[in-house]
Amino acid sequence: MSEPVPAAPRADAGGGAAAPIDKKLWLRLSPLLDDLLDLEPAQRGEHLARLRADDAGLADELERLMATLPELDASGFMQGTPPLPGTGHPGQMIGPWQLDHEIGQGGMGSVWRAHRTDGRFEGHAAVKFLNLGLMTRSGLDRFAREGRILARLSHPNIARLIDAGLVDERQPYLLLEYIDGQPIDRYCDAHDLDVPARLKLFLDVLAAVAHAHTRLILHRDIKPGNILVTAAGEVKLLDFGVATLLAPVDSGGSTAAEPTIGAPQAFTPAYAAPEQVLGGEMGTPTDVYALGVLLFQLLGGGHPTNPLRRADHPDASHIGTMRAVVEGQSRRLSDAAIERAQAAAREPGAQRSDLQVALKRARGLRGDIDTIVGKALRKAPGERYANASEFAADLRRHLAHEPILARNEAPLALVRKFVRRHRAGVAMAVGFVLTLSGATALALWQAHERQQQRLRAESLVEFMLGDLRKRLEPVGRLEVLDGVGSEVLRYYDKAPSHGLDDAQSLAQRARAQHLIGEIRERRGQYAESLAVFKDAALSTQRLMEAAPKDTQRIFNHSQSVYWVGHAARALALKAESRAAFEQYLALTRRLTELEPDHDDWIAEEAFAEVAVGVDELEASQAVQALASFERAATRFAPLAARRPELMDQMATFEGWIASAYQAMNNYPQALAAQQRKLAALDRLPDMQSNRPAESNRAIALQTISTLQLALGDTAAATASAGQAVDRLKALVTLDPANMSWKAWLVNCELTLTGALLEDGHRDEAQAHWQAAAALLREASGSQVAHSVRGELAGNRLLALQARLDPGAGDLRAALQARAQGWAPIPAHADNLADQRFSRTNLLLNLGDLQAAHRDTAAAEATWSQALSLMADLGTVPFEDIDKILLGRLHARLGHKEVASALLEAVRHTSFKHPDVNRLAQELSQPPLNDSKPPRR
Predict the structure, then answer these.
(1) What is the pLDDT of residue 781?
(2) What is the model's pTM?
(3) Which domains does the chain have, with CATH numbers?
(4) Catalytic: which of 185, 204, 221, 312?
(5) Element spanning 166, H or E
(6) Does 880 qualify as catalytic in the annotation?
(7) 140 vs 87, 125, 260, 820, 922, CA distance in Å?
(8) Residue 14 CA: distances (Å) to CA of 5, 224, 432, 460
(9) What is the pLDDT of residues 715-735, one digit of tens each?
(10) Cα–Cα distance between 475 and 843 in angstroms, integer?
(11) Residues 6+ apart with CB under 8 A from 856
């Protein structure tokens, strides 16, 4: 039970003494009572009414306590403040500094202005004393923490620490830079700053907070009263009294193991982030939220949860505000600013001109500023800007009329920003955009103006394909390019034909269509991209037919045809894809006939051979595919020998040759081709700094390991997989955010696990399995984890665990849950063979575990399910590894003759994988090769 706290006497209904107040209730009442006492008597009734809406019981208790005020006032209770020793007084000396007067009181203590008296220089400082009520161990620690934090900060927008010490050997103090200024909100209002000026001032605040963040310090109490602006317009961030070190430091400045969970929880509710109000884990996004509230206020929005109340209003700390911070949604800044402007206009004496100015300013906040502030005020910390630096970067982009990163903007809005920054360079493009809007509609009917409009359109196409593309593609703004391209195409669709003079426009139109088609293909809109590419091919074909020996026009048409084939392949339109790629090859051969020594045409013919070969390989025509790939490599080899920077493409050709050999179950030749691929990558210039090439090399080593294991060389397979893991680990260390490299590292760790297990190194295999499991857990929320590659890795992980630790308590349930969670595999999936093997192998292991637990019926059902999966997805030919897996399933189901036939099919091949011996052992036959015996 709670201990009762005596209450002040009050008259109750029977005239008796007041009952004691429960301690827990008092802890809730005390801050609310403080808020009431801070208000003018006339405001208290309204405030109580608001509190009653939140909690009627609390409001009743407060009302009873307030009824005792007249009696207390009459008795002179607590009137006057007795002097407190050691907290400062005018004239007191702190070293060479003499106190002038008190300039502030806070939760941590009092602050005094002081001046220098030793004659060395004239100046003022602020002296901060620890509140005597906090002269406890924790209070002293907090005060010392503030000093240590300030000592780590050195920034022109942060009030600097000058000195620290003890008065009379017991009263701690901090000597700080004295700032003669106004709180930032009052400064902005007093100087009637416009929005850009307020933003630039706010950027100084962000710079100060970012400086603290880079030193692993959170401020945790950002509000106008802690940000002063001097008469010269200089911003100073104050009061790190409730700041928290993200990595705590001891008194010597070194990293300490001191936990921060016991750090003070003081904050200003109106500026506190939801996680701060709830006592949750805080980080740099916590300060970002407070900065968002501050900017919302500076730009005229009041408080985000109530635009008609200022964030620093006395009732902003009551329980309703904290509830709104946690549960409510922030208003859009521009809407809040308009609402406040309209409310101000209803005040007596308001001027209509003032309203118009305020409304214009509020409407100017729509767009970027609304979005930036909205991102800073998101409820979830992970959805805000990660830190003050990111917040500042987006504001600077807005001020420079560049695309912000907080959202995807409307296409034409981004174009307008770009043009504002490059007026001269895109003047013709601007004219074109104005023309599209109808500004020169009548002039378009004149011949001269038609010519000018075409030139402007061509300029916009160049702008779109060049500078705009380079700026927007790296930040993922594909829809913007799509939108701009669509505007261009609408012009060309409406423009009249100009006969032979229209060739340039037709070419530009095709170029724009290529870009739009590529963008839609990258966004997964394959049907739309195919339609655009077909339309482009009609344009380039018309141009080529008009000049059949013009190699540039032939090349342009070949590109349109290639993209038609590419889009058709993505849609599994196999006949259409093959026809397009064969036309692409014919066009490139025409190029090399006309200009045999042109390097670009030679390379293009090789690329076309590969495109046709890939279609042949997917159609199970491995022999024809191999011939296509080898023709490509032969054609390209002299070119790569002259230009070593093309060796990565040569490596790609060798990789396709290896794939064709592997599809033919010719593992020695596949291995030789992969080794040639490695040699080609080694010949690239600047290999040590070429990270994409290094990742390709690691992937090649992983594939080599798989081939070596297929040939029964477990030691070589282990060595190659180990090299792949080492190379990818080095890359991931250089770029931990690269999820693709991490996904390949998982794959290589699992390959190494399997090779080590086959080579008899169970403990090492276990260690690498655990490394792969940890990486998969780390990537659990990423896009890679939910891709086909992520499924394959998850399946392999569990299948290997079944071999490493079949007795794991929850393994059977995990295998079963995974098997039940698979989505159907599309019949045209590029990696159909991999998915088929991965799922079937996992089901084999699940059935084995069920059988080990004497659940024979379930085991047979699982193995039968695996057989059905192999049959349903049998459109891709079986490699030897598939045949052995199929044989092991038939052996478990008692189909000995079928299993023996499958085993016999690989008897005289080069396939010596350890699974071959496993199947022989399961059929009670002698081993078929001399590789190491199987291990479980």
Answers:
(1) 60
(2) 0.51
(3) 4-75 (no CATH), 86-136+160-178 (3.30.200.20), 181-399 (1.10.510.10), 408-435+449-493 (no CATH), 614-680 (no CATH)
(4) 221
(5) strand 161-167
(6) no
(7) 14, 22, 15, 59, 74
(8) 21, 49, 86, 87
(9) 999 999 999 999 999 988 887
(10) 42
(11) 850
